[in-house]
Design goal:
Strand content: 15-25%
Oligomer: single chain
Number of helices: 14
Strand order of the largest sheet: 15-16-17-14-13-18-19
Low-confidence stretches: none
Length: 499
């Protein structure tokens, strides 16, 4: 069986660079595909193509209903390939087939359809009140920004891509997309569908390559008017600094260290499974994961015992097997990073009550595997409780009162996600006190196109999805119109004497 090769997509053409890199399965290390490696020159070409397409104006002048129809066309094309794309996503980044079909691909399609509907109904021009004392009328137009740079991670790539490029395109912008070098394949498949749907050349461009220099050059490019980035907080801060030179618009969705509070009133059967789901979905490689579990001291032993009991039932293995709940880590580098955190946790006095190492036996001789791990004996000042590990790791902290639980939950640099399990009325009151962009009550990972996704504090700037998604990709322009004849109906007399 031949190994597929993917080229860059620039100005409506598929471009090779003379240098390739390999995509290998995190589960088996088998070669999945080769990809052309882009760099600074290709970024410059892509941005130039996007800028020219914006200035030429075919796409931004296309009626919103037609832009919406094209997005819906692409969503339909993705829907016809959902099983194929889910398997490809699993092979390139190791997410289990259980989650790639439903979340990575399925929710991406729903999100694109939602944003297409927004494009069709969005008020790109609205009339305002009469302007006095002069008899003028006002219009407010929402106009596209220009060239948008979309820089996305490897963990849930298609959904994050759609969150960025669908509203950007719906608003009439042009886009240069830079997928993560570990997982670019589904992004390039998406470009094929936009090409097949008839998107004009230069409106969407895809440049693969390393974060440095490719992504860094794109985010700092002077002709880029907005950067939409999802990734680490450290890189997000760098992009924010770069954006100052040209006063770019920036949307940042960064790290998280989600607190997950189990109350005394919680149904433990649901809360225990929910805590594992919050921490371990997508192999624990999710920014909004519930990685800090806060439990009442009065029920500590029972909750920990039940967590371990349920965790022992998890199936770790081949991510293409529908029976698998937890798959591999994305790369050797990330694998070692997690093991380093395990060593740090031990020096801080934490104890792994399950996991804490690498699984052994058939199926684990190749690839990058980490046992689902639960640490107890953790305080909130420990590094493993404060820093984003990005793996199948849960730390358990205890509290003596609800006020203390809220204080611990908010004592973090992050503010992306949080959760509360227990009596609904009490949980809602607690949710109002939590510093998080998303709070789930008696559930976790509930993501819907109609609701915004994003965080407080160092978890980012702006929101993706939701009813105002296109606002992030448009500029407001005020147009004043005075239809009165002659100078007398204007304020000229403030400066100029009447004739």
């Amino acid at each position: 069986m031949s190994v597929p090769h993917y080229s860059l997509y620039i100005n409506g053409e598929w471009v090779d660079t003379g240098e390739n890199y390999e995509i290998r399965s995190p589960a088996t290390e088998e070669l999945v595909a080769t990809v052309a490696k882009g760099g600074v020159a290709q970024v410059d070409q892509a941005v130039a193509a996007a800028k020219a397409a914006h200035e030429e104006g075919t796409w931004r002048r296309t009626p919103p209903a037609q832009r919406a129809a094209l997005l819906n066309d692409v969503a339909g094309r993705l829907g016809g390939r959902i099983d194929e794309l889910a398997a490809l996503q699993t092979r390139e980044n190791g997410a289990t087939i259980r989650i790639t079909g439903a979340l990575h691909i399925g929710l991406s399609i729903a999100q694109m359809q939602y944003l297409a509907d927004q494009a069709a109904t969005y008020e790109f021009e609205t009339a305002g009140p009469e302007i006095g004392p002069v008899p003028a009328e006002g219009l407010v137009r929402r106009e596209p920004l220009g060239v948008v740079a979309a820089i996305v991670p490897w963990n849930i790539p298609l959904l994050v891509i759609v969150w960025k490029i669908a509203p950007a395109l719906a608003a009439g912008n042009t886009v240069v997309l830079k997928p993560d070098e570990h997982a670019p394949l589904v992004a390039l498949e998406l470009a094929k569908e936009f090409e097949a749907a008839g998107l004009p050349p230069g409106v969407l461009n895809v440049v693969t390559g390393d974060g440095e220099p490719t992504g860094a050059h794109l985010s700092g490019h002077p002709d880029v008017r907005k950067v939409a980035f999802t990734g680490s907080t450290a890189v997000g801060k760098s992009i924010l600094r770069q954006s100052a030179d040209t006063v770019k618009r920036v949307t940042l969705e960064l790290g998280g260290k989600g607190p997950n509070i189990i109350l005394d009133s919680a149904d433990l059967d649901t809360a225990i499974d929910g805590a594992l789901f919050a921490a371990l979905a997508n192999n624990g490689q999710a920014c909004e994961a519930g990685t800090r579990l806060l439990i009442p001291s009065s029920n500590r032993d029972e909750i920990i015992s039940r967590l371990v009991e349920r965790a022992r039932t998890l199936k770790v293995g081949d991510p293409l097997d529908p029976a698998t709940g937890v798959g591999p880590i994305i790369s050797k580098v990330q694998h070692q990073r997690i093991l380093d955190y395990f060593a740090i946790a031990e020096t801080e006095g934490a104890k792994a009550v399950i996991g804490g190492g690498v699984p052994t036996g058939p199926g684990f001789d190749k690839g990058y595997w980490i046992e689902p791990t639960i640490f107890v004996g953790v305080t909130n000042d420990a590094r493993i409780a404060r820093e984003e590990v990005f793996g199948p790791v849960l730390v358990v902290l205890t509290y003596d009162s609800v006020d203390e639980a809220i204080k611990i939950a908010n004592d973090t640099d992050y503010g992306l996600s949080a959760g509360v399990w227990g009596d609904e009325e009490q949980a809602i009151e607690i949710a109002r006190e939590l510093d998080a962009g998303m709070v789930w009550i008696n559930d976790w990972h509930v993501i819907h196109p109609a609701y915004p996704f994003g965080g407080f504090k160092q978890s980012g700037l702006g929101r993706e999805g939701g009813p105002h998604a296109l606002d992030e990709y448009t500029e407001a322009k005020f147009i004043s119109l005075n239809r009165s004849p002659g100078p007398e109906a204007r304020a000229f007399a403030i400066v100029i004497d009447p004739a």
